[in-house]
């Protein structure tokens, strides 16, 4: 009997500890939801799509170049996509740009799509972003840098680490910090809201956009967020804007949600981006 009681007590004592350790060891991976496989390039009337590979740390990242059908491009935009899927799921955020003469390079982080297989991390996705920037600069000159969601955070940090490497930065729906976004997500769930604060510390610190956004100056920065974003609170872009230095711009859209692309966000969004890029050339 006493053995059974002791065994039961040990299980009840050890199991929560094991679960907490699992959460802490794997918490950062919650920010990455890659889809493996070869993305199928889209067919468009305003541009062609070239598939390329970019070397990074003895591995590779797979990328598409949306090449506008003009004699000379207005510039090149490097696009960092969000945390889920692969290139196929994110091209809709930037395929309006070639119509205005901009070349776009969008890439899959290692672990996504047809890039080298590995577990994505904060360090590896940031290294991939720098590799894409260096590739573009060596081939077409200094690029613009654009990102959405997780990609917007990577864009802010990469530009903050090397502000002279980009002409301008467009960050759509970024969060301020990885732990802050974890808290926001946990508070949005009725089961986990009570434990949002302590559980968020399972997320590691470091390379948070709020710590790098001021370093982007004097490179121009445009922050964009939907007021009713259901995943990343729009207040986070306001906080980033407050922490940034001039030149900086903030567009809060009354309509739209987190994963809406340019076709859903409409003319205000596209016009703002194109005018910002034009002024930053």
What features would you describe in this structure?
The chain is an alpha/beta fold. The protein has 2 domains: 1-31; 32-279, 3-Layer(aba) Sandwich (Rossmann fold), CATH 3.40.50.1820. 37% of the residues lie in helices and 20% in strands. The chain is built from 10 helices and 10 strands. The protein has helices at residues 2-26, 87-90, 122-140, 150-161, 178-187, 196-200, 209-212, 235-243, 262-265, 267-279; strands at 33-34, 47-56, 59-68, 75-80, 84-85, 102-107, 144-148, 169-172, 221-226, 248-253. The protein has an 8-stranded mixed β-sheet, with helices on both faces. A two-stranded parallel sheet has the order 1-5. Helix 3 packs across helix 4 (150-161). The longest helix has 25 residues, at 2-26. The chain is globular, with a radius of gyration of 20 Å. The N and C termini lie far apart (79 Å). Mean pLDDT is 89; it is low at 1-25.
CATH architecture of the largest domain: 3-Layer(aba) Sandwich
Q: How many structural units, i.e. domains?
A: 2
> What's the CATH topology name of the largest domain?
Rossmann fold
Overall pLDDT: 89
- Per DSSP, the total helix count is 10
Question: How would a crystallographer describe the biggest sheet?
Answer: 8 strands, mixed
- CATH class identity of the largest domain: Alpha Beta
Distance between the termini: 79 Å
Percentage of residues assigned to helices: 25-40%
Spatial order of the strands in the main sheet?
A: 2-3-6-4-7-8-9-10
Oligomer state equals single chain
Order of helix and strand elements from N to C terminus:
HEEEEEHEHEHEHHHEHEHH
Q: Percent of residues in beta strands?
A: 15-25%
The whole-angstrom Rg is 20 Å
In total, how many beta strands?
10
The CATH H-level homologous superfamily of the largest domain: Alpha/Beta hydrolase fold, catalytic domain
Structural class: alpha/beta
Low-confidence stretches: 1-25
Indicate the overall shape: globular
